[in-house]
Design goal:
The protein contains 3 helices and 7 strands. It has 121 residues and is an alpha+beta fold. It has a 5-stranded antiparallel beta sheet, with helices on one face. The chain binds zinc ion (2 copies).
Length: 121
């Protein structure tokens, strides 16, 4: 048994919900609260998103083999979190020219363009 929260936590978590735990991770990349960190007990990698993103700060489990891709993993998690937070997609089509993807509920944009506009959760 390892003395950590990793197994109990979901693949994507709000950092604010488990601040003490995430604060105790070993940072593998520079920057406070953003980048790649690792659990000291079990070795699980976590990608932490930074404050510059307009959504809640998120922590995402990362497979060791995908550790180099933590930036893209953060972006994916932010989009998934936003989509879920907003209740999913609607029947509308994104207002962005030639996009063609479904809009996020109560929004004129798809999740990709909503994220790019930085509107947030
Ligand atoms: Zn752990
Ligand atoms: Zn779009």
């Amino acid at each position: 048994m390892t003395d950590c929260e990793c197994l109990r936590l979901n693949d994507v978590e709000r950092v604010a919900d488990h601040r003490d735990f995430f604060a105790g991770l070993r940072q593998l990349s520079v920057g406070s609260w953003t980048g790649l960190s690792q659990c000291r007990a079990c070795g699980q990698h976590w990608a932490l998103s930074g404050w510059e993103q307009q959504v809640a700060q998120l922590a995402t489990k990362v497979a060791a083999s995908a550790a180099e891709e933590w930036k893209a993993i953060n972006v994916n998690s932010a989009k998934e979190f936003m989509l879920e937070h907003r209740g999913g997609n609607s029947d509308e089509i994104c207002a962005w020219a030639h996009c063609g993807k479904p809009c996020v509920k109560d929004s004129a944009w798809c999740i990709d363009h909503l994220y790019e506009t930085g509107i947030g959760e």
